[in-house]
Amino acid sequence: MGSITLSKVSKTFGEAKVIPSIDLEINDGEFVVFVGPSGCGKSTLLRLIAGLEDVTGGQIKIDGRDVTDAAPAERGLAMVFQSYALYPHMSVRKNIAFPLKMAKMEQSAIDKKVADAAHILNLTDYLERRPGQLSGGQRQRVAIGRAIVREPSAFLFDEPLSNLDAALRGTMRLEISDLHNQLKTTMVYVTHDQIEAMTMADKIVVLNRGNIEQVGSPLELYKSPRNLFVAGFIGSPKMNLLEGDYAKAKNGKTVGVRPEHIGLSKDSGLWKGRVSVAEHLGADTFLHLDVDGIGPITARAGGEFGASYGDTVYLTPDETKLHRFDDKGLAIRA
Amino acid sequence: MARKVTTGAKIGWTILAWVVALLIFFPILYALITSLKTEQEAIAGFSLIPSGTLENYITVQTQRDYFKPFMNSVILSVGSTILALIIAIPGAWAMAFAPGKRTKDILMWMLSTKMMPAVAVLLPIFILFRNFGLLDSRIGLTIMLTLINLPIVVWMLYTYFREIPGEILEAARMDGANLWKEIVYVLTPMAVPGIASTLLLNIILAWNEAFWTIQLTTTNAAPLTAFIASFSSPQGLFWAKLSAASTMAIAPILILGWFSQKQLVRGLTFGAVK
Amino acid sequence: MATQNTKTLARLMMAPSVIVLLVWMAVPLAMTLYYSFQNYNLLTPQNVSFAGFFNYQYFYTDPAFFQSIWNTMLLVLGVLGITVIGGVAIALLLDQPIFGQGIVRILVISPFFVMPPVAALIWKNMIMHPGYGVLADLARFFGVQPIDWFAQYPLFAVIIIVAWQWLPFATLILLTALQSLDSEQREAAEMDGANFFNRFIYLTLPHLSRAITVVILIQTIFLLGIYAEILVTTNGGPGYASTNLTFLIYRTARLGYDVGGGAAGGIIAVVLANIVAFFLMRAVGKNLDK
């Protein structure tokens, strides 16, 4: 079991209101990602759930039990830290066994659990090494191993992949998703990287300045962002946000169109633009264009779309997939 | 890093560096050489080649009971350092891992107590010691050395503890360690190198402290500093013996010092220079 | 980290060191302040009476007082000057590629570990002695009249001894700082056409400024209290020629058994030390804030 309920949770550091008031329901077995720009309060929110910080107001429940004032260890949660926080003086085996030892488990049971965890995480050959002798990815797996042996009711991840290089980050993303599918335990995952959020989450919580901007599945957020902030934050490359005559014609203050929802042609189209930068990624080509009467626009083309600096390209936005926002920045639902 | 260096330049720098180093080291070397001379040789003019007698060392022990001040030095320096560590470790731990608004001020204040001139409190301390019967006692002097080195011990430990990442302690807390277990299993093993350097450096400082040790002792508790200072009056007569006593007084700490070069910089600059 | 529990606990853990230091600061200082207003001589302990500002007046009008302050300043500044300049020079030298660098380092830092009485006695008897010292031998070798250091230049002789003890400290710290200078910065400067002199002025020296500040702060703390070196060599003389403030107070208090006078001197020393500390701490506090 591992459902977490936050009611009216708030946190103040001195004068600064980091989190004004948050209500959130995390269901058992869900993979929930907190995402937002740095300083949005996502890590603080995680640490409040972990019990590493005291809440200023509100209530936190785990499986219906009020844990607002409980010590971290009493909450039955496990956490994977950004710096991995491995104990440098202990072998991998001892690192993974540490929480079990703290729970006064029998040595034979500890050995078995450590062996199982090491097997799942491909760490069997490294059990006698010290953390200093491991690569970044291996350290990450040890940190996860230390978390899973406790069989916690939920895992908390605090930007666990941000210290890894790009290739390893991709691999670890898959491993963590795979782990979630195997264990089916609740996971709460904090990141500033919307790609991690989109690829891993069952449910994404977009945070900005300590407030929840939107909660929903990755596709919900992609298809119908509730406001300008979510629209700009989710999706890569970013949604084009247009103001002015075109927006007025569509009855909105701002109109958003994703780069992948713009048709491109060399002969004709609604808008005419010149290529300023063409990024050829192989499968895709991202074109950054100056469009007459509109401004800069990013559009996605197929990998074979040959265009280079200075070329003239015609663009046609897919009008069925436009996002319209009013002058408060909220989405207008037709 | 691969800098081009000609062998010629390297030899030139080497010669210059060795000349400077030997000049600086010369007084110590010459004391060692003199300690191996007879008293006649010692005043017979400049010579780097002694007759190699060990008689002076034997005389220092038999006539002046060198072993007693030596043991006093060991007891005082080690005792006061351990006492200071016991007081300072919890405080430094708290300041490093749960810093408050005033932590920085408290640290600065502690350092500033080192700037209080010792001589300003010489009389009260002397009178207090006399009234409590602590004059010329090892206990009294141990307390004294603990007090004067405490700020430095706190500072050094603080700079070492601060380098232990806070996330590791949080991880231990998440893993179910209570405060006691956190200290035993996680903090202590990680802090041991820092504590060891602090220990080493403060033994050196306490060993060489030469104001209170001279002021507050006469014979019983007198460590080597006071013992050697008592040699200042007999002019020229016992140079070889004085050299032998000096050599023995500085040798142990010199060797400790060589091993603690790196920590010395960190420790004495309170982590400001690494 | 900062749960309420941890905060309370943190205060408790800090309490021993803070309280011990507070008592150690306050009690003797309060006693010194009290004694400084008393007529109190250890030879006649039954005659204790209120003295008003007499002790201060006595200390202030003593010609030795101003000489001792002047001597203290010369001692501190002289040693600082020698050790900082010498330290930078030797650190630069040791930073060059040389054979046997480890041993050279050990030789250079050794004087720092020599206890003050030993350092002073070695210099007094074996180096600077007008009859048998190495310098006298050297002078005679060149056919010059040997210098009687402690009679002719007593304060300068003390400065030399103390500087010898602290030169290693300055060197070691400056060398450590020097070695932390990014080699890419140096290479960039070489590419930019800066010669050795320019690199020293524009790159090395600014990089060392923090370490130099630290050296000055820490040495000042210790140099203001120089005592054993004077006791063993000149005993403050001839006259008051090598008496610093510490030594003058020691003389009044311990040799003159004058508790009141010594205490007044102590309070003056505290005030002066605080003035120095105020400026030093401000400078250093600024420099240490990263």
TrEMBL record, chain B:
<feature type="transmembrane region" description="Helical">
    <location>
        <begin position="182"/>
        <end position="207"/>
    </location>
</feature>
<feature type="transmembrane region" description="Helical">
    <location>
        <begin position="139"/>
        <end position="161"/>
    </location>
</feature>
<feature type="transmembrane region" description="Helical">
    <location>
        <begin position="12"/>
        <end position="33"/>
    </location>
</feature>
<dbReference type="InterPro" id="IPR000515">
    <property type="entry name" value="MetI-like"/>
</dbReference>
<feature type="domain" description="ABC transmembrane type-1">
    <location>
        <begin position="70"/>
        <end position="260"/>
    </location>
</feature>
<feature type="transmembrane region" description="Helical">
    <location>
        <begin position="74"/>
        <end position="94"/>
    </location>
</feature>
<comment type="similarity">
    <text>Belongs to the binding-protein-dependent transport system permease family.</text>
</comment>
<keyword id="KW-0813">Transport</keyword>
<keyword id="KW-0472">Membrane</keyword>
<feature type="transmembrane region" description="Helical">
    <location>
        <begin position="238"/>
        <end position="259"/>
    </location>
</feature>
<dbReference type="InterPro" id="IPR035906">
    <property type="entry name" value="MetI-like_sf"/>
</dbReference>
<keyword id="KW-0812">Transmembrane</keyword>
<keyword id="KW-1003">Cell membrane</keyword>
<dbReference type="Pfam" id="PF00528">
    <property type="entry name" value="BPD_transp_1"/>
</dbReference>
<dbReference type="InterPro" id="IPR050901">
    <property type="entry name" value="BP-dep_ABC_trans_perm"/>
</dbReference>
<keyword id="KW-1133">Transmembrane helix</keyword>
<dbReference type="GO" id="GO:0005886">
    <property type="term" value="C:plasma membrane"/>
</dbReference>
<protein>
    <submittedName>
        <fullName>Sorbitol/mannitol transport system permease protein</fullName>
    </submittedName>
</protein>
<feature type="transmembrane region" description="Helical">
    <location>
        <begin position="106"/>
        <end position="127"/>
    </location>
</feature>
<dbReference type="GO" id="GO:0055085">
    <property type="term" value="P:transmembrane transport"/>
</dbReference>
TrEMBL record, chain C:
<feature type="transmembrane region" description="Helical">
    <location>
        <begin position="69"/>
        <end position="94"/>
    </location>
</feature>
<feature type="transmembrane region" description="Helical">
    <location>
        <begin position="155"/>
        <end position="178"/>
    </location>
</feature>
<keyword id="KW-0812">Transmembrane</keyword>
<comment type="similarity">
    <text>Belongs to the binding-protein-dependent transport system permease family.</text>
</comment>
<keyword id="KW-0813">Transport</keyword>
<dbReference type="GO" id="GO:0055085">
    <property type="term" value="P:transmembrane transport"/>
</dbReference>
<dbReference type="GO" id="GO:0005886">
    <property type="term" value="C:plasma membrane"/>
</dbReference>
<dbReference type="InterPro" id="IPR035906">
    <property type="entry name" value="MetI-like_sf"/>
</dbReference>
<protein>
    <submittedName>
        <fullName>Sorbitol/mannitol transport system permease protein</fullName>
    </submittedName>
</protein>
<feature type="domain" description="ABC transmembrane type-1">
    <location>
        <begin position="69"/>
        <end position="280"/>
    </location>
</feature>
<dbReference type="Pfam" id="PF00528">
    <property type="entry name" value="BPD_transp_1"/>
</dbReference>
<feature type="transmembrane region" description="Helical">
    <location>
        <begin position="106"/>
        <end position="123"/>
    </location>
</feature>
<feature type="transmembrane region" description="Helical">
    <location>
        <begin position="12"/>
        <end position="37"/>
    </location>
</feature>
<feature type="transmembrane region" description="Helical">
    <location>
        <begin position="208"/>
        <end position="228"/>
    </location>
</feature>
<keyword id="KW-1133">Transmembrane helix</keyword>
<keyword id="KW-0472">Membrane</keyword>
<keyword id="KW-1003">Cell membrane</keyword>
<feature type="transmembrane region" description="Helical">
    <location>
        <begin position="259"/>
        <end position="281"/>
    </location>
</feature>
<dbReference type="InterPro" id="IPR000515">
    <property type="entry name" value="MetI-like"/>
</dbReference>
